[in-house]
């Protein structure tokens, strides 16, 4: 008996899954600004160094800048701290203090403002557990105004509530639906969303904190976009706080290809292999990456093996910073009492 070989059907490729993406506005600016002579129309950026912390303030002022960068119109602040990869408690304290000071300027709160903190992510997946862990370490006070008013009526506190709604795969409910229901009931003056992000550069994984006043799309960094949480959808201002904990395999593969080309050109100038690889256009590079990842059926997200220790440390840093920023009565020394 002879078997007739079946012809393979052409595969419909979603090239967006094989693009190099980032949740960080800073990285998007660095990627696209060279194409515009170092300055993107409608985008303002400034950087300062502060005792081991690099602070970058970036403002996307109009739709032209938004379209070029692929980010929403608004303000983005980035703290780059390479030392966060190491258990330097003094540095962590300084980062929390800087975060608190910068966040106050972003939020513009009054003493009476009610704040709702949303810890996005999956508590059971370590690189995605940042949001829930931050919520665990916040000093929540909204209930005290009714049940223990003597504690908060002394001044220096404001009503703060926190919730980690989980992910749709566990709850069966869209995160945005849960948050919308809570906002409708609590009626906060500000919503803070804390989430893990995806970076373009390996150097920024576990070293960077981003604050943005444009809200957030849960899961966007790993290609799992859900309905956005922003002022338009919730009816109140939304500030997003995030830390990149993963980088995708496409980024690593693309960077490796570029590194090989550069290294070959240095060691063996004008060699045929370098010329061939250097002439690959973006689509051809994506095709190579697709062929590499096709047996897996999808992209991969990569995180350092020390992420379990790091995620706890950075969650404490963010929680300490938010506790100090939201409650004037709490000093940085006091803040450590609420984290574990």
TrEMBL record:
NCBIfam families assigned to the protein according to its UniProt record, in alphabetical order: GPR
Keywords, sorted A to Z: Hydrolase, Protease, Zymogen
The protein's name: Germination protease
Source taxon at top rank: Bacteria
Gene that encodes it: gpr
Species for this entry: Tumebacillus lacus
Pfam families in the record: Peptidase_A25
Functional description taken from the UniProt entry: Initiates the rapid degradation of small, acid-soluble proteins during spore germination.
Entry's EC annotation: 3.4.24.78
Protease among keywords: yes
